[in-house]
Amino acid sequence: MTTSAYWEQTKQAIIAYAKEIGIDKIGFASADPFVELKERLVAHREKGYESGFEEPDLEKRTVPERSLSGAKSLISIALAYPSKLENPPKSEPGAYRGILSRSAWGTDYHHVLRDKLQLLSAYIKQLEPAAEVESMVDTGALSDRAVAERAGMGWVGKNCALITPEYGSWVYLGELLTNLPLPPDTPVEEGCGDCNICVEACPTGALVQGGQLDAQKCVSYLTQVKDFIPEQYRAKIGNRLYGCDTCQMVCPKNRGKHFSQHPEFSPDPEVAKPLLLPLLTMGNKEFKEKFGTSSASWRGKKPIQRNAILALAHFKDRSAVPELIRLMENDPRPVIRGTAAWALGKIGGEEAKAALIEAEGREQSAEVLEEIRKGLSFFEETTLPR
């Protein structure tokens, strides 16, 4: 058997095992440096488009050898996840609900993909005892999407998501680096063409152009920061508690695609679309019990509680006023006090106004005082002569 035939046979054995353990799609690529990606990332950084959640070392992000010395091949895997909520609970006055993005439904995908990659790594070492293997999911140095694109899994769309022909962009990605010289797959030629729907639909204009994202404006990023959300974006958050699916939902390549073959990704409707008011009083223990298995929990409860306050302001939920007053007056976290004050101004009413006036005379934090004054300014706007 020739050397190339031997490695092709090894590759086919890996593909067969991947299917056996429930991996939906697998692709292979060379571990050469990502030269074009590096150029794009440098420009991205210069424009201030990074989120701050990325690996800061651009060499590590674009040179696989920096993660595994002697790396020759990259193996990309994808697991499809659901896009539809079965029997979603209704959001209605007095019982308004928020929503988690689909990537946060069910069990945290990092754990599920890591388990699959671990099994795959063990199998590769069983086939080739001299194999060196390094796995990563999302938080690794390499770009999951760049690896997947090179491995022929799909193409990176104008919405910056990897779009696969079979599953659209409803996929979680992970990869393995190995020193085995496995035959690479051919990249997919298909692309977005003239379609620009996602760029036009982005709530904050974060998709600067096809395939380029200003993360600082992205709703998904904004829902995860721990500080105040800049005021110009607060109304755009709507009732999103974590993440944003707009650019995926409008994508024609995702139309009619829904996958439920992985029970671990099946959402609990009460977690995926929770009632807003109970979130405001939730302690750490209760938060961990309810959201601990979701990827939405990685930033802790503060961002989700702040987003719940913004959602109540979005719905102008008068029933939330007493709880928002309590938060504004007593919560030890300035971001929660200030966001509650802003929300009270948005919701309006005499009770909210009186509480804001009282809080203005008592609040010590300059940041929170600014939010209280913003809240009071909404009352002035409503009483200005026409």
Keywords:
alpha+beta, 43% helix, single chain, 17 helices, two-stranded parallel ribbon, 4-stranded antiparallel sheet
Can you give a write-up of this model?
The chain has 386 residues and is α+β, with helices and mostly antiparallel strands. The chain has 17 helices and ten strands. It has helices at 3-20, 35-46, 58-62, 109-127, 144-150, 197-201, 219-222, 231-237, 246-249, 269-272, 277-280, 284-291, 301-315, 321-330, 334-347, 350-360, 366-383, and strands at residues 25-30, 73-80, 99-100, 133-136, 155-156, 162-163, 171-178, 207-209, 212-213, 240-242. The chain has a four-stranded antiparallel β-sheet with strand order 1-2-7-4, sandwiched between helices. The protein has a two-stranded parallel ribbon with strand order 3-10. α14 (321-330) packs antiparallel against α15, α14 runs parallel beside α16 (350-360) and α16 packs antiparallel against α17.
Number of strands: 10
* Apparent shape: elongated
> What fraction of the residues are assigned to beta strands by DSSP?
5-15%
Unreliable spans are none
Number of helices: 17
Strand/helix succession: HEHHEEHEHEEEHEEHHEHHHHHHHHH
Distance between the termini: 86 Å
Helix percentage: 40-55%
Q: Average pLDDT value? A: 93
Q: Structural class, from helix and strand content?
A: alpha+beta
**What's the Cα radius of gyration?**
24 Å
Please give the largest β-sheet. Answer: 4 strands, antiparallel
Enumerate the strands of the largest sheet in spatial order, edge to edge or round the barrel. Answer: 1-2-7-4
